[in-house]
Amino acid sequence: MHPGSIAEDRVTMTVRHLPDHTIIALSGELDLASTAALREKMLVALNRAGAPVVIDLSAVTFCDAAGLALLVGIRRRARGSRLGLTLAAPRPPVRKLLRITGLDRAFTVHESLAQARGALDRPTLL
């Protein structure tokens, strides 16, 4: 494991603080068994961010209601800190879960990490 990584039984989180954004990459299962420990670590990463945050979901293999609640809570905290937060590259089952719960409208969701990072470079029109 390298610096900036944590590993739990079912999920791994890697954080990369870059000059203009932070990437939080998750892999494994976002479920009731993994989210309690992960929540605190994600909040620490969010507090250190200081720039927009991209959550890379490309390696998330499973997500249940607890995983969705984790993402919603992190989004709420990011908004309270005035940080932009986007989701990148959810696999089809996770994308479907976001869609059927309506959370795909609450989050900005990009098809890939590259697309999410590219969107950070474009100014938002008001």
Structural class: alpha/beta
Overall geometric form: globular
Overall pLDDT, averaged? 89
Q: How far from one another are the termini? A: 42 Å
- Biggest sheet architecture: 6 strands, mixed
Count of alpha/pi helices: 5
Q: State the strand order across the main sheet.
A: 1-2-3-4-5-6
Please give the radius of gyration in angstroms: 13 Å
How many strand elements? 6
Question: CATH top level?
Answer: Alpha Beta
Strand content: 25-35%
CATH superfamily: STAS domain
The number of distinct structural domains comes to 1
* CATH architecture annotation name: 2-Layer Sandwich
Give the CATH topology: Transcription Regulator spoIIAA
Low-confidence stretches: 1-8
Order of helices and strands: EEEHEHEHHEH
Give the proportion of residues in helices: 40-55%
